[in-house]
Design goal:
62% of the residues lie in helices and 2% in strands. It is mostly helical.
């Protein structure tokens, strides 16, 4: 099982998890529904009341008959609000309780790095679990919030007090823009789109790792991917990649609801959306920090 964050491979809706989606392959004799390259066909939905009945389709996604305990959009919104709310609460507490003045900067940074490592480990554990664990997901959100709170406080203190608000507003605008584009079908998630995004994300992450290694062993800013003109370019690329992964997240939610995924899977949808939004926020924060420093 995988998450939707660009750091990891996508988990998707696979048959071994009980429903269809990104990682699903049609069974012998099943026909793909409409133009949806991820659909398995009328016989592939294990949650339909009559899985062999001809389903309704909308943009090629079979619509499973309503059943008790199936995931709904309200479930996804509620769980996402819980995870994002935990991130915001953790960030607010870290901002207030972990000062980044000269006397406490080292200690606060140490706590932030430790929280980031714990959040990373928790996200890995959840990504490879077959079923969602609300406790793991909420814990990840709390530690991620601590990390974001210290980093945001440092940026606000040493770079500019308006940078954090710009990054928050930028993240909200990206989310709203991608959601609108997805609902209007200006963005269509196909296998080609999915493959391109994953390839671009892997390339982006490899470049960032190489840049980090050069910075650690060679000093300075490594290859210059985190400052100046190149930093701005890669910041924009990072935001665009985050926007693409948001579209994949929306497709994941849409398929889960269409195929009648269990309600507990809404926690995975919330997990993926939260990780993607954190990614976008960090790229926005870095981008606006560079732009503010160039003024």
């Amino acid at each position: 099982m995988r998450s939707s964050n660009p750091v990891f491979s996508r988990r998707g809706f696979s048959r071994d998890n009980g429903y269809a989606g990104f990682n699903a392959a049609p069974q012998a004799g099943a026909t793909a529904a409409g133009a949806n390259p991820y659909a398995q066909g009328t016989a592939a939905n294990p949650y339909a009341t009559n899985p062999y009945a001809q389903p309704d389709t909308q943009y090629g996604v079979p619509q499973a008959p309503a059943r008790s305990g199936a995931m709904t959009i309200d479930d996804v919104v509620t769980r996402t609000a819980i995870t994002l709310g935990t991130v915001v609460l953790g960030a607010a507490l870290a901002w207030a309780l972990l000062p980044v003045d000269e006397a406490n900067l080292g200690k606060s940074y140490g706590i932030a790095i430790g929280a980031a490592l714990v959040a990373f480990v928790l996200s890995l554990v959840q990504s490879f679990k077959r079923r969602p664990s609300p406790a793991l997901i909420v814990s990840y959100a709390a530690f991620e919030g601590v990390f974001l709170g210290v980093i945001s406080s440092a940026v606000s203190t040493y770079i500019g007090p308006g940078v954090v608000m710009q990054a928050v507003l930028g993240t909200m605008c990206v989310f709203a823009g991608v959601l609108l584009a997805y609902k209007m079908r200006w963005i269509r998630v196909t296998r080609r789109f999915y493959g391109f995004v994953m390839a671009a994300a892997v390339g982006f992450m490899l470049l960032m790792v190489v840049n980090l290694l050069f910075a650690v062993f060679g000093g300075g800013d490594g290859l210059g991917f985190r400052s100046g003109g190149l930093g701005i370019l890669f910041g924009v690329i990072g935001v665009i990649l985050g926007a693409c992964f948001l579209a994949l997240d929306f497709k994941q939610v849409e398929d889960g609801i269409a195929y009648g995924a269990p309600r507990e899977e809404s926690w995975l949808a919330a997990f993926g959306l939260t990780m993607t939004l954190v990614w976008i926020y960090l790229e926005m924060l870095r981008l606006f920090s560079i732009l503010s420093g160039d003024d």
